[in-house]
Amino acid sequence: MLIKNTLWKKGAAFIAACVIGGFLVAGLLAPAAALGSTVAGASVSFFDQLPSKLDLEPPARKSQVLAKDGSVIATFYSQNRTPVDLEQMSVFIRDGIVAIEDARFFDHGGIDPTGILRALYVNAQGGRQGASTITQQYVKNVLLLSPPTRANTADNTKTDASRTIGDKLREMKLAIALEEKYSKEQILQGYLNLVYFGNGAYGIQAAATTYFGIPASDLTLPQAAALAGVVNRPAYYDPLTEPEHVVGRRNEVLDKMLQQGYISPAQHEKAVASPLTLDVRNTPHGCTEATAPYFCDYVQRLILNDPTFGADEASRRTLLYQGGLTIHTTLDPDLQQTAREQVKATLPATDPLQRGAALVSVQPGTGRILTMAQNTIYNPAPGPGHYTGNLTLPEKDSNGHPLNGAGGFQIGSTMKPFVFAQWLNSGRSMATVLDGSVRIYKAGYPWKNSCGATTGTYDPALGQTPLPNDDPNHYYPMTVLKGLYHSINTITFQSAARLDFCNIQKMATAAGIKNGHTNKPYDLSSIASLIGTQDVAPLDMATAYATFAAHGVHCAPIALESVTGPDGHTYPVPVPDCHQAIDPDVAAGVTYALKPVLTKGSGYNIPVNKEQDIFAKTGTTDGHTQTWTVGATTGIATASWFGSYKGFGPEWANENITINGKYYIGLDGANIAGTQWARLMNAAAEQYPGHRFPPPPPSMLR
Questions:
Q1: Domain architecture of the chain: domains with CATH
Q2: GO MF annotations for this entry (predicted)?
């Protein structure tokens, strides 16, 4: 049973502190022969003037990022600590720490006059003896380990070697004040949650997990005694590097526990004979060790960019690394694992080719991000395949804050559905036949753009190549529908020639397409942009195709479900931001037209389960440098990309090249990007089955 302090004990301790404090100060400031009442009186006065208030702010604790099922994605901390109540600590650690550190803990009022006198005598004889009580050690640790949110005064940051008698007297007075305000149980609990156990483990819960792989409540007698011995000198009594020192110190603790009646002789004998058996569990820290490192980095940026979590980035970082946040996210851990496996199988990060592969998925109708994976290694150190930039993200968010994104890649023919959407939106039919043999567009061609000018030529007279199709057998009249699912450039240009480029741009913007570097609308000032020469981030491509899948409802992508502090405080996070951006009939027309891509069009050989109601579009840029497959069901939309993230010159072209053991004359969007897209979508089919897409109105088919 814990014994409560009485007022007379605390008063006696205070008087003893004044007297002994005066003696100590006087002993340092004047020769022993000169000691007198004046010096002693001044020392007592000095002690009286020391501060006696100590604010026990919550200790720094780790924050966790959780997937949608509650599993841990990542942990952030500056001090690996998980505070627990005293009742959640093994009785052996409670008794062991008192036995070895402060046998009279339950009797004194914050300082131990007997211990001080003993220490003075031992030290005067040339020995080494400490006199700090657990309460004093608690005060010292509060001052040393307090979060940066408290002022970092010189007193807070001094080491043992630089601490003066004045510092020690201050600790003594603060210890006395602490005992006036808090119970012994609260002080012991606070101390065990704060103190450092070495190897990055702060507090008993982290120590028990780090060294033995168990919670503090499950510590056995020999385990608890070992940890109780570590706190005295964590480097010297390091269980990982100095196990013999630890066993010796552990046995000292056990001896003290036996002497003080905490354990029986039989318990003592058995514990002393026990080997030091460790089960080391390192707590992953930061995004480098996260299960979804690039998604982790994205979540980190969302916190650091948002004023909700602090006035500036420094305060937000402090909150993230010390505030004990629980961050629930939208990530599907099972599907994320599939995505990671696919991108790594596509091309290992260390392959000499050094190409990138990425997958990102969102949920139509909510915008929730379900997967975010790439084949590179999240590591800032130089090395093959090491890259911390996020291949799926734009460079900045909508407010101009950095997202650490690559900024996107040229999207090729995945741009064509937006031209097609505006074709339908203008009241035209997808059954209209256009001349796919038209390949020459000379200077001065009357392109219409009510937002500005659109220029560009395909003119042999100027030494230019006529507008090419990927397939040389499709230069003939065909319907706009067939032109889309076969990905015929000449049909896309003939469509655009009858439309206002400004409206095409507005259609793309409404769906979610934007420049990945500037966040400005997709640039259609050049006719080449019709076939995807602008950079767009894969996340925005997935979001745009999800807009079609959600019957024209655009939802901004979101990654955070909730953010909660350790005290239960809930921080506001973005809720699904959805609105009807495209006419539902137009969206129905686009999904109708893109389904044949997977059965008889440019993606017919993509190995997706074609029994589900699903659509997609492939895309390939000049030199086959960037390749895409983007598509969706009503349950999930995914953008898949494979290409170069390190450069865009001829050396990065994917032509006459062997990738992952397979030779390609020219890589197409349906090949690698299409395969990893299909495997992810097949894996998602059961959990995100979706529904049948509505048919377009008959007027669009006539």
A1: 7-49+82-272 (1.10.3810.10)
A2: penicillin binding; peptidoglycan glycosyltransferase activity; serine-type D-Ala-D-Ala carboxypeptidase activity
* CB-CB contact of 590 with 417 (8 Å): yes
- How far apart, in whole angstroms, are the C-alpha atoms of residue 98 and residue 13? 19
**Angle at the Cα of 247 (from 281 to 108), degrees rounded to 5?**
95
Among 353, 285, 357, smallest CA distance to 322 is for 285
Return the C-alpha torsion angle 222, 223, 226, 230, nearest 10: -170
What is the spatial distance between Cα 533 and Cα 537, in angstroms, rounded to a whole number? Answer: 13
| Opening angle at CA 671, ends 668 and 672, nearest 5 | 110
DSSP states of 106-144: TTSSSS-HHHHHHHHHHHHTT-------HHHHHHHHHHH
Q: What is the pTM of this model?
A: 0.88
Q: Which residue has the tokens 């050049």?
A: 526
Q: How far apart are CA 226 and CA 5, in angstroms?
A: 29
User: In this structure, are residues 598 and 608 in contact, taking their beta carbons and an 8 Å threshold?
Assistant: yes
Give 567: exposed, middle or buried? Use CB within 10 Å, 0-12, 13-18, 19+. exposed
Alpha helices in 150-203 (DSSP H): 154-157, 165-181, 184-194
Q: What is the dihedral of CA 333, 339, 345, 348, to 10 degrees?
A: -90
Task: State whether residue 506 is helix, strand or coil.
Answer: helix
pLDDT along the chain (702 residues), means of 10: 40 46 40 36 48 73 97 96 96 98 94 70 54 88 63 36 70 90 96 96 97 98 98 96 98 98 98 97 92 98 97 97 97 98 97 97 98 97 95 96 97 98 98 98 96 96 96 95 98 98 98 97 97 98 98 98 96 96 98 98 96 97 97 98 92 95 96 98 96 97 93
